[in-house]
Amino acid sequence: MTRRYPLLLIIACFILSSAKSQDAKPLTTESKKAAVERIGALLVENYVFEDVAKQCAAHISKKLADGAFDSFENNPQFAEALTKELQSISHDKHMRVMPAPSRPAAGQRSNPILNNLLSQQSMARRNFGVARAEILDGNIGLLDLRNFPPTEASRPTVAAALKVLENVDALIVDLRKNTGGNPDLIRYYCSYFFPEKTHLNSLYWRQGNRTEEFWTLASIDGKRRPDLPVFILTSNRTFSGGEEFAYNFKTRKRATLIGETTGGGANPGGGYPVNEAIGIFIPTGRAINPITKTNWEGVGVEPDIATKADDALQTALPLAKEAAEKYSRSQTEKAEKSLEPISKGLEKGESLVRDGKTGEAQGVLFDALETAVRSGVATEESINGLGYNYLNSDKTGMAIVIFAFNAKQFPQSSNVYDSLGEALMKAGRIDESILNYKKAVELDPKNENARNLISKMEREKKEGKK
Question: Exposed, middle or buried, 253 (CB in 10 Å: 0-12/13-18/19+)?
Fold first, then answer.
């Protein structure tokens, strides 16, 4: 977890792991004064808006002098009061004072490797933020995301969840309980639903006076669907990275947002120790959307359709169903239109093969199938299936040409050579069949079927010579 990201998990860790022994220590006038001075210095040095940091520092210093903190006897109460006073000036919901994590007992040492493993296990038990990924009636996908952990650890699980939803006709993304997280994982999700080279968001960092841009990834682990109808559910609990996700879609009019205005926290940062008992989360940067040139800090992300959070899903379902039906029809029409020249190519190719003009047929069929692959209406698997349709219909010449195309188009696939070997064997072209089966085994040493057929054909060739 890096300090620069808007991870509410940092805050949760501070709160949940606070030490009872630290809470038991009495607060003194001196310790409160030292804490206020330290917080002021940390803010002035690190908060993204230096002028506001100075105002915050002066405000809590005055509150201390006025006796506003005199009645607090323990650190959680003191931290809560400091948070309230700081936010009254900054209006920044990420700026929070909290009980600090406990230190190891005497004689014990902190083990960073163990802590990292425990963190990984914690993320895994929460399924890396993916609470639900399923297909509802009407081929509508539902993706419930609770947070955005670091990408490296989360990517396999996220990719698997998106694979489940790869062929839906509309998608509902539920962010009603999303508390935020890593902007790089947000970028990964968004890359599935925006065109390539889309500028999603930028983060300005005070340290170094630099701006980090987040663009959609050129490579993802599944199908990119920039035209899929998307509906996003929000609540007033949707916060930080969850808000960025929704804002990315809203500003580009890429989705319909349904629910409540979100929490309003846009400034990323990290945790800093104040003393042994308390720490502070300080926003050290701010989000800058490339469309609005601003962000959702303090105002939240407004939905397109306002409703209570509890009613958002039921409101979204009929809209998603209507959008899915329309999308499905358009995809069918698109496929039919794309298949017209391919169908004509197959008809012409079949006629040429029948007339013995195999070389000419190959040129026609290769062009038609390449168009199908390029347009996205054909894959290695579907072309292989087409070849077997011809092979099973005793149109072996057509099958050989189609399998040969697949071998050229997907040269690292064992299966395409296996299929071509089968068609050549049926045509009696044994030497060519053996060569293709050997290529299949080279690419997949576990292909026992190909090994057995090679042995069988070579044995029969030898016996035939005798």
Answer: exposed
